[in-house]
Design brief:
59% strand, 4 strands, mainly beta, flat, binds zinc ion
């Protein structure tokens, strides 16, 4: 398993008037680990640390 550099994100979705709208300004920051052999991915919520503020 390889840790992907930096953060990724799961983008929020909204439902409005029966339509599904992606909201790229909102979501869950995640850290992604992946296996280059089989493509398996694990995601964990990113822990905010001091680097987030700089
Ligand atoms: Zn694998």
């Amino acid at each position: 398993m390889i840790k992907n550099d930096g953060f990724s994100a799961i983008t929020s979705l909204k439902k409005e008037a029966g339509e599904v709208i992606f909201d790229p300004g909102s979501g869950v920051p995640i850290i992604t680990y992946m296996c280059l052999k089989c493509g398996y991915i694990e995601n964990y919520t990113a822990q905010f640390d001091e680097s987030w503020n700089s």
